Amino acid sequence: MSAKIKDVAAAAGVSVATVSRALGSGPVSAALRQRVEEAAKQLGYRPNLSARRLRSQHTQTVGLIVSDIRNPFFTAVSRAVEDAAYQAGMRVILCNTDENPDKEAMYLRLMEEERVSGVIFSPTRDTARRLRPDAYGFPVVMIDRSGPAGQADAVVLDNRLAAAQLVEHLLAQGYRHIGGLFGNTSSTGSERHAGFEAALAAHGLAGEGRFIAPTAEAAETVVTQWLAEEQRPDALIASNGLLLLGALRALQRAGLSSPHDLALAGFDNEVWTGLVGNGLTVIEQPVYEIGRTAMEMLLSRLDDPGLSIRSVVLAGRLLVRGSTSPHPSAQGVFGQP
Amino acid sequence: MSAKIKDVAAAAGVSVATVSRALGSGPVSAALRQRVEEAAKQLGYRPNLSARRLRSQHTQTVGLIVSDIRNPFFTAVSRAVEDAAYQAGMRVILCNTDENPDKEAMYLRLMEEERVSGVIFSPTRDTARRLRPDAYGFPVVMIDRSGPAGQADAVVLDNRLAAAQLVEHLLAQGYRHIGGLFGNTSSTGSERHAGFEAALAAHGLAGEGRFIAPTAEAAETVVTQWLAEEQRPDALIASNGLLLLGALRALQRAGLSSPHDLALAGFDNEVWTGLVGNGLTVIEQPVYEIGRTAMEMLLSRLDDPGLSIRSVVLAGRLLVRGSTSPHPSAQGVFGQP
DNA sequence: TTGAAAGCGCTAACAC
DNA sequence: GTGTTAGCGCTTTCAA
């Protein structure tokens, strides 16, 4: 068995309380601290964090609950959260829910049992609606998606604006029949759809938005079918990286290319969006910043639980690339003006 | 404060021991179990896992230590590890080391303090060499990279074979001046380099392998320079996804394309490798299987610590795509035979 | 500044 | 089957 605090105390000839203080930040004479550290090192002492947590009643642990860590958006966020957490001396428990409300409930329950200090959560729309964040023993910071306003801290993109920017850009490039693909499990999908509709309406146009399961496979299927329809749109936007990938694959399978046959744009500046063809126009999200900010908000709330509920809304950045170059019919002398 | 086991006991009119047994898998009469469950539900009781761990002396926790979760290889592995862990009722603590031996040491120390059941670890070459896995209070399973044979369980790719396959493929396609990019911090880089050299030597050829920092940026810089040299290779292989990405970017920046100016191939079947141009030829690693297998090995060792040390070597799969189509000089009637 | 002692919430040994 | 009790390893009063 490994050395306990008692063993260190015995070896250093002091009480366990002194050891605890010396290894922590208690008031101990320099000489004793030295002796204790020496003894601890000698014995290879490692404090037992379970015991420390039980006694001290704080776990220095945060839960991070996302749909799938393999989504590059969440990958980046999680890296930021972990960097910030470890810097603050906290651990992170990562949970993948696969957009499944049952799993979400299960992990929230687990977080209670872990007595986590707080949770950073990207909930499905259903759970966000139902969730009473103050029903838990810990604060919750929502990321990417949010529930009813003012219920919990949140870090989100300005989704309506970003979607509108994308639409405005396509309109400026001469596209008029714009279709949209939106995830059907998150508030983000709805908000981006709202921005999409609003921007088109502002120009007296209507677009066709389709809500689908947030997977590349679903998008590929839907877009493949869409492309075969009579009234094919001349531009398509996809409300996240997975949907954009599916859309791109559908185009490739159909032997079509952007922007020649169809303009394509979307959300999330994933590696491949800059590599394929002349690049895909996307809204870049400040992914690392989202994670870091979420952790900062959590820490400041732990520091002062009386803080009022805050929403941090971050702006996306439009990266214009080749996939949305001007519509053929708008290209100067060779086409209609 | 939340309800404790004592409160549940009082509410159900039984002893705390009975509550513990009823909620766990102890022998309790059906009637009492019912009453206890009812009371626990009523009170919203959540067992305190810190207390349970301290008392029971097992934490049901595994550590996963990788260089960077943003590397898609580790992303996929981590998802597999977590799936398997949560299924087995265990939690995962994720640690990013950035290939930094100091961070590796720090996290290993943290794992000791957490009294984890075991660790799944992808160490730098330096740490792998130094590491004495039995110096810790928990078993270690190495993934992707391994240390001295027989020291710890490991799940690795057959790196030499995979690199050789890549070389053989390029040779068969008519390429003769093959360069290689290898990471300089991992055993994986060395092994792939060895396979590369061996395969070339078997054909009486010599390649030029360069060892560099395992980042896309380093690869881009090195390849940009390499392409400007007098003796430009006619094919390049990159020993992981990051290096392959950097190499591709260097080509694009130089206005070159594969396979026209230079064949390009590498490791890791990342999303973008299938999308760019006519696709990049890669060795696909069974990423999810690697993670799942590592977790299985860990669980079986926890079950029976007497098991002898095992290495599981998995085969990669060569995915031939457009970036390595036949060398111009080997293309039938139009070129040299 | 240091030590003695209580106790965090739970499980497991033992007794009935 | 059920209850009583000790104690996991630590931090934190409280007293000296």
From TrEMBL, chains A, B:
CDD domains: HTH_LacI. GO terms for molecular function: DNA-binding transcription factor activity; transcription cis-regulatory region binding. Keywords: DNA-binding, Transcription, Transcription regulation. The keyword DNA-binding applies. Residues 3-56 form the HTH lacI-type domain. This is Transcriptional regulator, LacI family. It comes from Pseudogulbenkiania subflava DSM 22618. The lineage of its organism: Bacteria, Pseudomonadati, Pseudomonadota, Betaproteobacteria, Neisseriales.
